[in-house]
Amino acid sequence: MSYDDVEIEDMEWNEELQAYTFPCPCGDLFQITKDDLRLGEEIARCPSCSLYITVIYNAEDFADDKSKKKSNLAPSKQQTVAVA
């Protein structure tokens, strides 16, 4: 069971760690990266103790740019190939 449920908007982006962070009661920071969020991860862990939090976020906000571009592409046209 997680220590708390925290919305991503309540977390801070830490440029040095390249992760969203939130204060842990032990004095360290819960951490979760953008890559974790893109993969659907919702658990931010504290590196100094056993606590973790559940991050509430909209997965579409962190979808990979490549997958967004692919969904906007029209399906390729099929071409007939003659075989001799």
Please write out the topology.
Layout: E1 5-7, E2 12-14, E3 19-23, E4 29-32, H1 34-38, E5 43-45, E6 52-56, H2 65-72
Parallel strand pairs: 1-6
Antiparallel strand pairs: 2-3, 3-4, 5-6
Q: Unreliable segments (pLDDT under 50, ≥5 consecutive)?
A: 67-74
- Summed over residues and divided by their number, the pLDDT gives a mean of 85
* SSE topology string: EEEEHEEH
Number of strands: 6
- Span from first to last CA? 66 Å
Give structural attributes.
84 residues; alpha+beta; 3-stranded mixed β-sheet; 3-stranded antiparallel β-sheet; 2 helices; 15% helix; elongated
Description:
By secondary structure, this protein is α+β, with helices and mostly antiparallel strands. It has 2 helices and 6 strands. Residues 67-74 have low confidence and may be disordered. One of its GO terms (cellular component) is cytosol. It comes from Erythroxylum novogranatense. Residues 2-58 form the DPH-type MB domain. GO terms for molecular function: metal ion binding. One of its GO terms (biological process) is protein histidyl modification to diphthamide.
Short description:
Keywords: Iron, Metal-binding. The protein has 84 residues and is α+β, with helices and mostly antiparallel strands.
